[in-house]
Structures
1.
Amino acid sequence: MNDISPARLQVMWNRLLAVVEEQGQTLIRAAFSPIVRECGDISAGIFDAKGQMLAQAVTGTPGHINTMAEAVKTLRERFPAQMMKPGDIYMTNDPWLASGHLNDFLLMMPVFKNNQVVGYTSCTSHLVDLGGLGMGPEGSDIYDEGLLIPPCKLVSEGEINALLMDIVRANSREPVANDGDIYALIACCEAGSERLLAMMDEYHLDDLDTLSDYIIATSKRGTLEAIAEVPEGVYVNEMTMDGYEAPLTLKATLTVKHDQLHLDFAGTSGCSSKGINVPLNYATAYSVFAMRCIIGSDIPNNAGSLEPFVVTGPSDCILNAQHPAPVAMRHTLGQMTPDLVLGCLHQALPGQVPAEGASCMFDLPMRNVAEAARDGGHEFAIELVHNGGTGARSASDGLSATAFPSGVFGSQVEITEAAAPVIVWKRELLPDSGGAGEYRGGLGQRIEMTSAIDEPFLVFLSVERLRNPAKGRAGGAAGAPGRIRVSGRDADIPGKCELRVEKGERLIFDTPGGGGFGAPQLRDADALAHDVACGVVSNIAAQASYGGDT
Amino acid sequence: MKNYTTLRLAIDIGGTFTDTVMMNQDGSVVASTKTLTTHENPANGALEGAKRALDSVSGSMADVSGFIHGTTLATNALLEKRGARVATITTEGFRDILEIAYERRFSQYDINLQKTDLLVTRERSLTVPERMSASGDVLLPLDESCVQGLLDTLEAVGAEAVAICLIHAYANPAHEERLRALLHAARPDLVISISSEVSPEAREFDRLCTTVANAYIQPLMARYLDAFAAQFASEGITCPILMMTAGGGMTTIQTAAQFPIRLVESGPAGGAILAARIAAENDLDEVLSFDVGGTTAKLCLIDNAQPQTSRHFEIGRAARFIKGSGMPVRIPVIEMIEIGAGGGSIADVDRLGRLTVGPKSAGSEPGPVAFGRGGTDPTVSDADIALGYIQAETFAEGQFAIDADAAKAALRDTIGQRLGLDAYEAADGVSRIVDESMASAGRTHAVESGKELGQRTMIAFGGNGPLHACRVARSAGVDRILIPANPSVGSAVGFLYAPVSFEIVRSRYSMLQSLDLAVINQLFVAMCGEALDVVRQGDATGPVVTRRSAYMRYNGQGHEIEISLPDRTLTAEDIVPLSEAFEAAYARQFSRPVPGMLIEILNWSVQVSTEAKPIAETGDIPKANNFSVDHTRTIFCDVDGIQKEAGFVHRSDLKAGDHVLGPALIVEPQTTTLVGADFNLNVDARGNLILTREVTA
């Protein structure tokens, strides 16, 4: 087995990458949860017999990077390989083991060849509802947030555990969709296992050892070479966020050595009493994603490429929340960690790191009010996703209304209106919301909607940057903050709450803009004139922010 | 001597070559030529090809009774941004549908990513007050007082074509039609595409993109089609010219000029039609069509002699053919996966010391190193030459010299020195990487379609398909390959097998259990009528086949499965069998159906096409004969990398029943078939080469 040529090992590596993409596609196509099927909020990976990750699908969200790698290690420790049988599948949704909140279910399946476990396939997907207070920040502890399933065996030699399925069903407002999504996860594990075995047969492999060593060593070497290009030093960055009950500080110290990047969250505020706390596995996932965007981004995720990135945080800071803190909306702050990390990296690599962006997606779960269901009115539940602008880059403008760091898809208005009794009257870029700069920040968007049937509806809000906009870099100006209003009401709506929109009222969201890069006075005159002609920068702003004479 | 009574002519204009094929009344190919594409006026190259082909059978233009044309012009105009200056008109409040799109980046880690250019700037994005609901009710009437303002702005921004896409217009086209009429009343010269005609499906971004793409190429294509028809008419062609479409059917020049977006990728579609025809002739239920040219490889799944179809296509994906990086269009297409891997694909070594191949291509200029036309980067063809698979003496009918030593030197210097390999090992590596990426594209495509590759017969054609077929088949787990006659002009041959057909898809959301049969039946009557009208313009009397289908999914899912419907009025008795058909199809894709789910339907489609020509009987099963191989060439075996003697055979010397053991090279004008050491070759009664792999137990 030891004399496989590098070219052939590389072919097998490419094959593994293809297998995880296939797994991911299977999961997305079979999924019921809208954020999975429309937005790709999943992960799929292949592991060797020691539980080291060899390949991971590049899917809609970085929130599963390393969380999955760590989860498989934990599950393997919990369930010894010699107890496993072909056709077994293990499962958990423990936020501190899987992916940061109860909705993310993680499955792991051992792959057998000649009666030996030769590797594992694993996948994660977002289920619609696990009971409790549901997808919102209002829980006071994890018990308020719904059903937690500790690591357990979901499928035993091909037989699905009926009691476990009954328990999940009995604890959800969306039992049918949950059922469907668990079936999709099972299909995903099984597809990965089949493809992996087919590859091993084709190459006459009895184990993955040589291939695993090759993938991990090659990736680690490449990652270390990339790290070596970052100047050694200690880089500190701090950001103020809106928070729930009070503003919060996120602080990071990045220590760069030739063979390691160590990020620590010391100095970050303590936990909130509401569900915006972030388990460290999830904060790590987004932080490492941001670092890998800048350092060695062409190297696929696996045990080798991830090893040099170490993330720590003081226990009980809001980026290392401990059980039983509420964590349902952990993505609100989790998705801000890339801006935090990029602020450190900018000091090490000026000119390679973009300005801050809207970052946290406007994830907007909506449903009918309780009395509508009681009185025989229209019942519905949807989860819209919309985004603000990204930060300007060092040589190009930011992207308007575009997801970063998450990779989820925005909802199409015609699909939203077919699925739920709402009418979206406007979804348009918001002029002047991009931070001014030599390169302009991406624009936010304005979305206006009403009920289509004269019944009130509920929105569960957990968004950021309504009071603390995205900062510019290198002299660039900040982007516009986000804003949420309801027509006819005097006060703006806070970013984190349960909002009831009455019939006849119009709900108006402005998503935040991205920060600018470089001094606005340096902006190319043609670029500014084009912005004005296209109406993304007003004449007034062209003069006020750019000193332009357009 | 004339060996025909009637002639049918097919011309496929590609980026480099224009392929011309002629068939007689028996469906036998009587002439085929390759001429250089004349970009200035593509009709000139087509005319030269037609004349050459006619000369070779002593025929004249007047003898041509059928003429099918396919062209990359529409695709290239979109790729090279040579279309009209388009303005969009959308519902007020939705000016930025194009820029907002799906709010996502197609490449997760690329911090400097630039979004796809969707052809219309915000300056040329206009809006009009009006609004339909999802069910097609008017929420806000069209504000006709705005029309003058729109006309002024169109004038001011210099719009040459207009794409109108109003929210929910697929459910009620009244406002789009009225707006077009009002604009035309003032500006009859304005080219206008409306979304409810071009692509009447929900999802405003995709529908607008499709409408924009159609408007963008409409002026150019209308001019081209007019001129093409006129030029051939003046040369004596009397039959109507039909256009090949992306969906694998033919349509009239008039329809093509109205919906030119349906002409994109018609060449590759022709290849898939050829493969489907061969599948039918040979009773092959499961086929993988494998078409490799100089720049790309196209793979298509064909079940029961029907190419897989889709309603979604992306134009101009970014360099690495990344999904989601192109401009999406929703038109009926033959579903295939196209990757940047062909003979001209360039090999290199990346930062991690990994060997990479493509998608950058040396094209025909400067071309592979061995062609001696200035290319310095080693390509897939250079690797094939170094390995001995392409022999200098027979390449391109000996029209130009091949410098094998230059190919080897480039492989050694660019690849070998950085990886510690000699020229042959480097060539072997290049071959393995490119073949694996083609096989991997095939596998991923199969999974995305919920299908398997293993049991399929690969039908290989295109200039480089027969050369790479064995290697890719081995990697994809395929054991049987068929190389048809005239493989290097496969797409044009396919044109001659295409039916006259037209497909319409409409969105009408319904739950299967509570289907409003009257509404759906009425929808089908209208759709069938429209599609038949188009088909009748191309074939006034012939028998037609109508295929109806519904796109179903479990309520709450996001991806639909196409389920066939009976070609008649639906009744309440159909509901249960349809639900069973869906569950069976679902279980095939996702291992088991999900209990207790409701089924919903999003889209309904109708395809009307003329019947395929009957398949000629073959004669008796040919007598088996071990072909005696007189010549050999030294090659590096693609199985174990060891130098071996391979049989060297001219395809024209082979006859039905002949049997050749691998390794062997079967050469013919413009292409070579490599028979791997683990494959055997048999010639079937129709002259196809059948390669079968000895599978080790």
Note: Chain B touches chain A through 68 residues (CB under 8 Å).
2.
Amino acid sequence: MISFQQVAVRYPLGNVALEDATFEIEDNEFVYLVGPSGAGKTTILKLILHELVPTEGVITIDDFQFSHKNFKRVAELRQKIGVVFQDFKILPDDSVFENIAISMEIKGYPTKEIRKQVEEALALTGISDKKTLFPAQLSAGELQRVAISRAIVGNRKIILADEPTGNLDPKTAWDIMNIFKKLAISKTILFATHNTDIVNSLRRRVLVLKDGRIIKDNKKGGYKL
Amino acid sequence: MNTIITSLRRTPYQTFAALSVLFFTLLLSGGIFVILTFLQGLLGYVETRPRVIVYFQVKTPEKDIFAIRDKIKATNKAIDVTYISQDEAYKIYEEFTENDPLLLEMTSPDILPASLEIDALKPEYLPEIAEFVSGMPGVDEVQYQKDIINNLLNLTSSIRKTASFFFAYLMFMSIIVLTTTLSFKIALKRDEIQVLKLLGATNSYIRAPFVNESVTLGIMAAVLANIILIGTMLTLNTVLATFFAGIPELTISLSEVQLQVWPFNIPFILFTLGVTALFSLFITLFSSYAATNRYL
């Protein structure tokens, strides 16, 4: 479970990235984070990943609890979370297979298990034939699939997806959404987007953000600008 | 291993710089280490043969000399006291001058002094024994190896001090060069490190490839340095044999174990190899830790 209790992120010059954010997300729940650019979607994802530290409030993720104080179990926390970055963050010198495998190597999985899970993830995301290629040889859609594959291997319970369809053409974006639909059965997913079509196609819980505040928590799904 | 080799090949100039400095450091350190252990062995050899020689005036009666010998034995500071009579001294002189009969003709047993050769139990007893006998009647001159031991002690101490300074300097220089080289590589991979951290990589996981690469360089440098060092030692073995003809072997004690340092032998060569490898390991581990620490 992910829990935010009155979490705020304020920068020294007075800018507010997030204010009084309080919500809970159950295990295996699919939640959209929507809102215009600068609303605080990425801030929430960064807070969960402990890439950003809250200036106020407490965040609890399963048995991890942290606030603005020093938190030493960062690597342990991150090993539970798969991330699909907006800019993919694929390692340029490693092949597709290696890029996905690294997510499991970090957690110390044996080679045999790594091979098995990576092959399954490649099949799920439809890029089995690209596993020996390098990032420079892939399209944006294919890179996004590599990023998703990397996020789902290694038994990561939580998937954070930051605008995963943002740079993609509509057809590829729908393909990616279908992958997330399959993943939604067994993983907690936080999906940041401002694509209303995508949000409305899969009617799941929506957290609407504006100017760093959660202005609506629509548990029945659906979103209108 | 393939990853390490690829990484080293991708940055040939940095690899060469780091390897050269490490090689130079290990070669010099190894050389100094061999010289120091050799001198230590030599010092030990001289120290284990502490001897005072007491020369008597030619007219001193034998019974007086024997009385002094008994007094020395009674002190329990001597292992052995050997009496060399005037006749025995002449025989020794004969052996020394067998190639120069003219010198022998000019000498007779009655002008050579009788003497006592005293083997001390410990080197520190030498001055005490020398002082004890020097005031006795009939004693003409007392000689012992004070100067030789002092000179060797001074030499070893000077070399040890100079070597410590060199070790420190070489180590500092190697660490700086290796840290800088690794820092360049790490800076190039900063984004990659950031991604790994976001995926949950621990510091040791991120550090591992850089440490492995650095240690590999250290091993390569140690192997190269030792090839040259061992080659030099084996070459010098025959040259030094003529200088140390009377010395069968030199040893140093490492707590309970006695290690033979001369003539050069396999255990000593392996010991030198181990010391340089450990030195190399320390430098490479410290450098890689320092370089990666900035980015973790």
Note: The longest helix of chain B spans residues 146-188.
3.
Amino acid sequence: MSDAMLELVGVTAGYGRTMVLSDVSLAVPNGSAAAIMGHNGAGKTTLLRAAVGLIPVKSGSVLLDGQDVTRMRPNQRVKRGLGYVPQGQLCFPQMTTMENLQLVTTRKSEIDEVLDTFLALRSLLGRRAGLLSGGQRQQLAIARTLLTKPRLLILDEPTEGIQPNVVADIEDVIVELTRRGDLTVLLVEQHIGFALRSTARYYVLESGRITGSGDGGEGAFDPVRAAMTV
Amino acid sequence: MDALTTPFLTGTATGAILLMAALGLTLTFGQMGVINMANGEFLMAGAYAAYATQQLIGNAGLALVVAIPVSFLVAGLLGLLLEVSIIRWMYQRPLDTLLVTVGVALVLQQLAKDVFGAQGDPVVLPSWLNGNIPVFGYNWPFRQLFTIVLALAALGGLSAVLKYSTFGRRIRATVQYRDLAETLGIPTRSVDRITFFLGSGLAGVGGVAIALISGTNPTLGTTYIIPAFLVVVAGGVGQLKGTVIAAWVVGVVTAFLTDWTSGSMAQVLTFALVVVFLQVRPQGLFTVRTRSLA
């Protein structure tokens, strides 16, 4: 087992000929939680998509638990322990909540275990996912990814566009996950307070480059806010 | 009464063939953005597989029963070969796939001409399909009813696979949201291959029905491919329910128009009607309902 669960080494990536990330390097230690902060358009989602394998890396490498996965397809990275909850509460809208979960596993015990964490989903198992609220869909997205039994969980803006009372529930779950110890968490989040409270380390991304980093916690609030103020 | 019954029943049987041709197309077009113009030639391959099976077995009844899985396999394997050798390099490039598969269709037609000859070959009907049922004064041929039963069986089988099997859920997931499916560990490329196999195989089964109605012919696929795409687009890409309704409507409307005008004018008018329909409802009959853009 490597010291870093996820390591990006000099990663340059983008869409077509337009490069969004430029020579980005970062490491998320095994069992820890880290946050990536930055303005809209800084390249946060692109960074996660490059780590997951949804966009090709032009140069540099992506290491998962010490193993080079740069050329692997996303589904192969999932088998090696990478779990990804994309931005936007994505689900398969024409499938029921249960069918969304059964895409990963049909084992009832495993689904039951995840539903114990997301109790609100229990009464919605037969409902089509496209008809769930944003908060319910986000809970479904996290539950579904947890069924893949990740060792590294990557969450892209998990509380974006969700009503405040549900945000609190989702934040509680994420904080709980970061404290498990057997799970490494990489979080992109606009809510600076929540991101810093729940992670041990932060990186500031600006115009596709890492421009700052440090330890998380309440003490990091002012430097991060300063770094993110135009 | 006969003026209404005849085109209605004949059109329903034509709709059943269109349905078998369109089921595969709606999955491959929806899932992979592939416009497979060679799908008509998979109908043709299925028809010739039925003919060849009958030549081998002799007994028309037994040959028909054997021909259905054989045609499914032959057309399915042709589709798989097409996917592995050409299509997989062209996902989400519909215009490129359209051009390439037109070329593949021409090659397959020529191949059929070389192997079986340019003239069509008749397929002998089993005795139990060689009769008629009187329906409101029209003697409806058993073979048309058989075509409808075959299409419903194909539809039922496909629906059951999509709804209840893990693999079917994976196909639906890949059709709806490919990237998300990948990030859940679903090997979408393998899913694509098997979907192509299934879709092409279903067209092959459609070919058996065509062989029973009008025999084999190297160019029979060209008759069905454009209407089949009309069905896919009008029904809503990737929507089985829409495909079923659109296939039936296109089949029946074309049959009525053929009765009132001529075969070619009916095709033109059906095409025009679908174009007008798509102006009003560009997404087709059915679409995905969600509370957001997801």
Note: The two ends of chain B are 49 Å apart (CA to CA).
4.
Amino acid sequence: MESDPKTLCFGEDVAFGGVFMCSRGLLDRFGRARVFNTPLSEQGIVGFAIGAAAEGYSPIAEIQFADYIFPAFDQITNEAAKYRYRSGGVYDVGGLTIRAPYGAVGHGGHYHSQSPEAFFTHIPGVKVVMPSGPREAKGLLLAAIREPDPVIFFEAKMLYRTAVEEVPEGDFMLPLGKARIAQAGTDITLVGWGQQVRVLELAAKEVAERDGISCEVIDLRTLVPWDIDTVAASVNKTGRLLVSHEAPLSSGFGAEVVSRITDRCFYALEAPPVRVCGYDIPFPLVYEPLYLPTARRVADAVRHTLQHS
Amino acid sequence: MLALAGGALRASLGARALAAGGASLRGYGTTLGVEGDVLTAEVNPFKTHRIDPPSTTVSATKAELLQYFRDLYRLRRMEISADMLYKAKAIRGFCHLYDGQEAVIVGLEAALNHKDSIITSYRDHATHVMRGGTVLEVIAELMGRTKGASKGKGGSMHMYRRQTNFFGGQGIVGAQVPLGAGLALAHQYKGEGGVAVAMYGDGAANQGQIFESFNMAALWDLPCIFVCENNHYGMGTAEWRAAKSPAFYTRGDYMPGMNCDGMDVLAVRQAFAYAKEYAVANGPIVLEMDTYRCPIVLEMDTYRYHGHSMSDPGSTYRTRDEISSIRQQRDPIEHVRKLLVDNGLAEASELKAIEKEVKAEIDGAIEEAKAAAHPEAKELWTNIYQDDLGMTLRGIESNHKHKYA
């Protein structure tokens, strides 16, 4: 916001810092004209942001919870994603960034816990980014804001209050579309994004200590476009693939990863690729621990996959 | 008892249906006099909500009236040509024609300038031309050619012109309205006295996002003119069958509104000049353009009428009498022709000469569009992201691979 006076930040309660205090202090620094609260109208917020982006501004629109993004689904799918294409490049809304906290938080229940990322990976024209920690969040968010394409940026709600990490000061960006090898390994490739990367790291630690299995953990960072080369190179090396996400199994983004990697690495695979995901049910309240693809479930699947030889 | 209630309901529906679905036959207004080259007329009254109406006495010079005549006729002729090209299968896909509503966009452009931005629905051919685009760009876009407004990639519903702040036609009913509020934010931020115009129809007026946009625009005093082009039918549904309150100029509740005779270019011009002044000084305003989609080719011996789109004959939900009465009593082109001819400002032959010129322009545009190239196959992938992600298209033979980007 310092480097570009056309960057705006708005959403429900954003001027007060937002429900997760992500925008705390922005109003004091940049003023009411650039940092403001909106009514509770997601379709309107996103449509409004698209209009401002078409005028050459860089709006950062916050949807308070990813679960509330669905009223804006038409605006994202039909207005934002296709503006450049249907105008033959006359207009674009590349300045647009939509931030939304997603995922389980321990007690969120049906409407404050969902992971809707897969819906948005099915829309050519928008990019989808999901950081896995504070450092990643800073680098990827700055890149997303400056990216000349509309970006949907899902932030791991669980990590707002649990993650502690050194974050580079000043202007710091990470490239979109590049995966990060969070941990190198030789026996199996574990792929995740957002807060699930921490779960994969925990599972990798458990199977390393108890079973002597070496996991390579890949943080995808960006789902559209996703870094198929990094994942394929890893699977060609390990011969095994596990993908994990909190969202329900069926039609989740894990299916896309498994399909594309099977296509690319079929002859290198030594076991069927496996997905460890949420169940195909609404996100539960009291049974959240049973629903989630926990480190224990991941570790169990890793052991099972290693039994193929 | 039930039968009685049903009968009463039918009777009530029947009575309302006779009222021409809300379209009124209020005629052309009155000419007050001519002094030199300046004509003064009394336009039909404006209906207003939470605001005083502008004066109904308006003036226009001969040169202005001739220009309006040319603009209106050009748009009409273009749409009629599109209709014929569609029927000849030279245009495929969706196609929504604007004939009958021309006075709205011509009056709007007479009052605003190209620094003001416009966003509209899928019925956007005329908007593109009046924003400084060409008939060739429209026809070529309809035919999916590279000379089209969007290089042949958008089609009928998607014309854009950045250099004159035309943010285009949008395919989803009502979805352009919140974007219009966003455009208005940019005008407020820049503070150069510009306004954003967000246009939608009476069908879209019942969309929830319209009210979200009203609220945000009013809350933040954005210089936005919301324009409900009320042609009285949302596809095949008369306004009163779809809206509890078809007085769309009052639907902004806390926001001022005004209903204007959208068939009269002079009334429209007056309304927009007034609305712009209001919006820049005070914030958003709703304008209801009471128009009638007058779906008639100029040759009177035909019975073909334009409906909502090319797949709608337009005659199943309204009577032909209704259509021809409106055409005879309120047609926007005939109105200007009468103003010029009856008041001795122009000879009928002078207007015929304009028509001839416009016909030649449009025929030329059609020929040029027909000769223009289709987009290259690689356009399938371009303009999705700024830097295309790189995809492969299969050629005619399975081993032919075309890689782009």
Note: The mean pLDDT of chain A is 96.
